[in-house]
Amino acid sequence: MKAIVFDMDGVIIDSEWLVADCWRIIGEKYKISNVEENCKKCLGLNKDATREVFLSCYGADFPYDEYKQESSDLFHQREKEELKLKLGAKEFLQWLKEQKYRIGLATSTREAVAKVQLKDLGVLHYFDKVVCGDMLKKSKPEPDIYLMACKQLEVLPEESYAVEDSYNGIRAAYNAGMKAIMVPDRVGPNEEMEEKSVVILENLMEVKKWLEKNV
Fold first, then answer.
1. Residue 75: its pLDDT value, please?
2. Of 81, 97, 140, 168, which has the fewest Cβ atoms less than 10 A away?
3. 102 with 174, same domain?
4. Mean pLDDT for each consecutive 10-residue tract of the chain (215 residues)?
5. 171 and 195 together in one domain
């Protein structure tokens, strides 16, 4: 059985830039420095792990919950107009269905948010299983979310591909024993990513071409 599991933000939905922009705007309001760089450290992490990163950067007295809520409110004000699918996402998902792939999603985003975004963008129905960050305790780079996705899809991790854009996501897929494909978004690959990815490609249409030739 063929299976492929996607991350959502930065892979299926072009959302990472909007998240970072909202955090930047609220950061400027509170005169917080280096927000965009610290956002990059949080790529792929769930809400609890993201909170830990910010508290480690700005101190235990940093009002993270208030800041996060304001950033989230701004994001949701803008998402209907500004969220788009990544290049080739729908075409690739349709092709995978035609090729009889089992398709999963493993996102650190909360279920209530992820499913609404995917439905609004017209792609939720392509996914056989959707695993979200609030369905389990451990965040990427731990492998738990990918192991859960493979279990729900009834496939072995070593027989499955994972498509990720973040370092933490690639680490999670690699730690799960999956074949990790990196499609960079806000951070480019480094030596570790080259070692842990079976291939690094520019966009999802390039992933489609690669699968056609190599699977």
1. 96
2. 81
3. yes
4. 93 96 92 89 91 94 92 95 97 97 97 97 98 95 98 97 97 98 96 98 98 94
5. yes
pLDDT value at residue 1: 61
- Which domain covers residue 132, as residue numbers? 3-14+84-214
User: What type of residue sits at position 72?
Assistant: S
Q: What is the CA radius of gyration of the chain?
A: 17
Peptide bond into 141 cis (omega under 30): yes
Condensed to tens digits (0 to 9), the pLDDT of residues 79-92 reads 999 999 999 999 99
User: Running DSSP on this structure, what letter comes out for residue 37?
Assistant: H
Give the bridge partners for 179, in sequence order: 161
In whole angstroms, give the CA distance from residue 35 to residue 50. Answer: 12
Number of domains in the chain: 2
CA dihedral 83, 3, 45, 208 (to 10 degrees): -50
pLDDT score at 30: 84
Please count the other Cβ atoms lying within 10 Å of the Cβ belonging to residue 179.
Answer: 18
- Sheet strands side by side (includes 102-107): 129-132, 102-107, 3-6, 160-164, 179-182, 199-200
- Measured distance CA(158)–CA(174) in Å, rounded: 10
Q: How many whole angstroms separate alpha carbon 20 and alpha carbon 186? A: 10
Question: Do both 203 and 155 map to the same domain?
Answer: yes
Give the tokens for residue 75: 């994001």
| Cα separation, 168 vs 151, whole angstroms | 21
∠ at Cα 84 (107, 49), nearest 5°?
30
